[in-house]
Amino acid sequence: MSDRRDFIKKAALGTIGISTIIGCKEGPKEETVAATNESLAQVQRKPVIISTWKHGFPANEAAWKTLTGGGTGIDAVEAGVRVSEGDPKERSVGYGGLPDREGKVTLDACIMDSDSNCGSVAFLQGIKHPISVARKVMEETPHVMLVGQGALNFALSKGFKEENLLTPESEKDWKKWLEKSKYKPVINIENHDTISMLALDENGNLSGACTTSGAAWKLHGRVGDSPIIGAGLFLDNEVGAAAATGLGEAVIRTAGSAMVVEQMRMGKSPEEACKIIVERIFEKHKNHKDMEYLQVGFIAVNKNGEYGGYSLRSGFNYAVCDAEKGNRMEDASFKMTWDEK
Ligand code: SD4
Questions:
Q1: What InterPro entries is this protein classified in (predicted)?
Q2: CB of 218 closer than 6 angstroms to any ligand 1 atom
């Protein structure tokens, strides 16, 4: 029996109605009967999609629709994060993202599949959907990463359209920032960045995507963690997947997402794994000048569909979507509040 038919059969026996598998928005149906422990373990947790911040909520919906409509995990994470990239109200991703200190919107993105194929673009300008360019790098080049003008030339050769990504709102904020020109990238719930999305499909295969306009007011040419496989995003299909948000420099210094996956490999739950690496980042940065405004957060999912998140400071949340509970926001546990030093 195919995995899919097996999945549907088990779902039909369990507390999860088939309709809830189709619609991420819906909750469990009352008329279904109790599942055995065995079927619960196998049914409830797959598929699952998890993504950073509130913009993850509509992104999850798009990803879920793609996944349950027959798309692959990679199709799903790409479709999901494109929602944030294309939304000018999201001031930290793609179109409408806050610019660097020269007023240029420069974008970083990466994508990774269950066979460890990956693609990435960094310091890319003028292309609204860097995640789709990253996917082309993965699928149509012998490389993993393209940057700057080379990434733009590649995108144009693949038919992407060059456009102005600096919206009047972002331009206005940049001009206001120029008045004081103080670089202090406080990243939090009211000022969130980066969408990272992880998906475990119904066959138990993992995919991930990460896309951002990076830290606002950064130096022109700065690249963060988000396009770096192992820092902003990492997965090992034998183990689990992890992704980061927050101050990219701190995540790069500690190879954050790869380390979260390694903790899961050693048997830690996704939340424990995120917490251990956040603690490590804290230890490495407690006397660092970045500590004043440092925020990092991770999300993770393992092969069983268990998921979790953890952040250094309060205020990090993420969106989770599965068949059992639908799409919802969850607050991550954290090490300290913003008042603590
Ligand atoms: C960066 N990690 O460019 C990104 C920014 C971010 O939540 O995720 N903010 O450093």
A1: Ntn_hydrolases_N, Peptidase_T2, TAT_signal
A2: no
Average pLDDT over residues 132-143: 98
- Count CB neighbours of 153 within 10 A: 11
Cis peptide before 28, with omega less than 30 degrees from 0? no
Percent of the chain with pLDDT over 70: 81
In testing the pocket of ligand 1, which one of 106, 107, 193, 233 has its CB within 8 Å of the most ligand atoms?
A: 193
- On the CB side of 240, CA atoms within 13 Å amount to 32
- Both tokens of 277, joined, read 């690496």
Residue 193 DSSP one-character state: -
pLDDT band at residue 98 under the 50/70/90 scheme: confident
Whether residue 94 is predicted with pLDDT greater than 80 in this model: the reply is no
Q: Which domains does the chain have, with CATH numbers?
A: 1-43 (no CATH), 44-336 (3.60.20.30)
| Residue 3, token pair as written in the block | 């995995």
| CA 25 to the chain's CA centroid | 20
Residue with structure tokens 């990272």? 196
Q: Is 246 in the pocket of ligand 1 (CB under 6 A)?
A: yes
Q: Does ligand 1 have an atom closer than 6 angstroms to the CB of 193?
A: yes
Residue with tokens 């660097």: 100
Locate 188 and state its tokens.
């939090």
The pLDDT score that the predictor gives to residue 220 is 96
Q: How far is the CA of 108 from the centre of ligand 1 (A)?
A: 10
Going from the Cα of 226 to the center of ligand 1, the distance in angstroms, rounded, reads: 7
pLDDT at 303 over 90: yes
258 Rama class: left (phi>0) / alpha (psi -120 to 50) / beta: alpha
Mean pLDDT, to the nearest integer, of 148-157?
98
In 3-state terms, what secondary structure has residue 335?
strand
Amino acid at 180: K
Q: Residue 341 — very low, low, confident or very high, per pLDDT cuts 50/70/90? A: low
Compute the distance from residue 296 Cα to the ligand 1 centre, in Å: 8
> What number is the average pLDDT over the span 19-48?
48
pTM (2 d.p.): 0.86
By annotation, the residues acting in catalysis are 194
